[in-house]
Amino acid sequence: METSSRENTHFFSNNTILPVDRSSFKSESSASKEKQSCCGGIKLFLGALSFVYFAKALSGSYLKSTITQIERRFDIPSSLVGVIDGSFEIGNLLIIILVSYFGAKLHRPRIIGAGCLIMSAGTFLIAMPQFFMGRYRYERFPSTINSTVSLSPCLQNKSQTPLSALEKSQEKINAGCEKEAGSSMWIYVLLGNLLRGIGETPIQPLGIAYIDDYAVEENAALYIGCVQTVAIIGPIFGFLLGSLCAKLYVDIGFVDLDSITISPKDVQWVGAWWLGYLIAGVISVLAGIPFWFLPKHLPKPESRKDSSTSSEHSKFITEESKDQHTSSWQQAKLAEMAKGKSLEEVILSLACLLVLLFCLTDFLPSLKNLFGNPVYILYLCASIIQFNSLIGMVTYKPKYIEQQYGQTSSKTNFIIGLINIPAVAFGIFSGGLIMKKFGIGVLGAAKLSLGSSFFGYLLLLSLFAMGCENSDVAGLTVSYHGTKSMTDYEPALLSECNSGCLCSRNDWDPICGEDGVTYISACLAGCRASRSTGKGTVFFNCSCVGTSESSQSSSAVVGPCQKGNECPKMFLYFLVISVITSYTLSVGGTPGYILLLRCIKPHMKSFALGIYTLAIRVLAGIPAPVYFGVAIDTTCLKWGSKRCGGRGACRLYDSSALRYVYLGLTLVLGTVSIFFSVAVLWVLRKRSSPRDETLSANGERGTCGTKSRKERFVNSDQLIQSTYWPEKETRL
Predict the structure, then answer these.
(1) pTM of the predicted structure, to 2 decimals
(2) Quick one: average pLDDT of 631-642?
(3) Which pLDDT belongs to residue 322?
(4) CATH 1.20.1250.20 region(s) of the chain?
């Protein structure tokens, strides 16, 4: 240890510009100890912040993995699930300005710790409805549930069913209607996600700023890169956790699992979605504990104490000395307002003062200057439209895989977590590596970003040919005679073969006939006898199940029929193209963000990034899941029904229509964003000289306009934020 310390001291002294004499050894030794103390404190903060990024990324991705589970559990359409998903962004936007402004003046680590507690409280709130809305009920014919009464699926008349059984069934329905208010408990999921957004707000701005303030300048970029790397690992574990919980029945631990007559392949299956939220909430609590013991300030490194860089931070320090008079006047004014006034009056006065200061500052001129930059505006429009495409695609990708290829929720989440997300991480890394290796400047970054989007959406176009045909469902996709149904769906549910049965068209209890056709219920299949109970139930004498030889011995089993033989092969092709597409689109993320940084003036960097992030969240993060959900709902063939009436969650989608709507909407938005990217490249070519296209070895960079050599120079502290790509967790 002594040898290492002496070597570090010797190295430090050799790199010092000031002359060294014997009297300076003591001061250098104390400086070295201070540096070690500083590094130790910042590394503790770095470890804690990385764990928090992991926790928030895990809980966010887990929500994406439970979209279909929440939809089925609460019997709500996809559009409403989209509102729940967008509530996180709403909560984040509610306090982002207050946190960004006041957070830097308060104890930042403790504010982050409080945010973790709020985030965990929201995560726990999402899981709470499971414990208050009773057991999950799925639609099943009574004979497939362990019952002592033997019932015929085709009730030719009510006298076949014992009165006591009908009365008990009606009593259960009435009891369910009395508790139907429990179906509105999805509101708690929305509020919990809103609370998650509020708690997550201080983590990024305060955490990154804390590292930037107290880390050694040359290490800051590395530290922030480590945090972002851990943030990419979070979604992997989030989807894997979703895969594990989707295998478990929703009421595990509360019911006898042997009595469950549905399997994970059934569209009515709901996994233990709530269990993952409890785990994520505990992780968030643990992640917030270290911040309560970290100091408000850390000793600044020696390299930052006396250095006068041209960075944005030093600019504000210079301006601070000029505005000391104004600052002291504001403090005196605040103290005067607080005297003799209630809390409400003080808050109102503070709000009025903030609005006044907001208007008196250079906000409006800065905003005008920013929006007067054509490259910034065009790139902002391209990013908004592209993130609409990507956020909508990612939100409903699990649903698309389940409905299009007949995969279970567990397998879908496992594939996304283990294949797609690593491809995204590798794509982000590759984009930065290409930028560095080939010394790409502004025009090169614009070309790389455009090429990434173009080839990514071109690959996405090929997915239109990699879908599965609709399953043969009698009365919906095919007629009861085996021909493709071209008429209206609802009237086609009843046919001559089941006209003598008292069947409900609202039920969804699918069975698979021996003819390979799925029937909505045993009653609509005309089945008159059944044997055994539970998952092994077999129905006999089904008049609608036709075979080429004889229909007298026609039978059916519980559950829908499998997709066609070509579907597994198409699913494999889809996975390959999906991974390549994810990688290709992600390659352009880092160059695009570098382009954004280099096309604005250094002193407007934070303001421009703030407007960019705000626009992405308001115009993409909130609306995209909603209108994607509305579009997907239009492809539903069979809606479930709630116990007391009303439309529930969709049970069956038109595979072809779903493919065209989901991929088509994604592709149209992506194509529009490409046109804006082409416009960005055109403006850059028009305004840049040939020498701006290259990145020289001494750190000069091309800019978006014809500026002086000094103005084009971007120093190292601006590169600190270049490793951060906002909303990159959603570009999966």
Answers:
(1) 0.77
(2) 88
(3) 44
(4) 40-139+183-300, 365-463+565-689
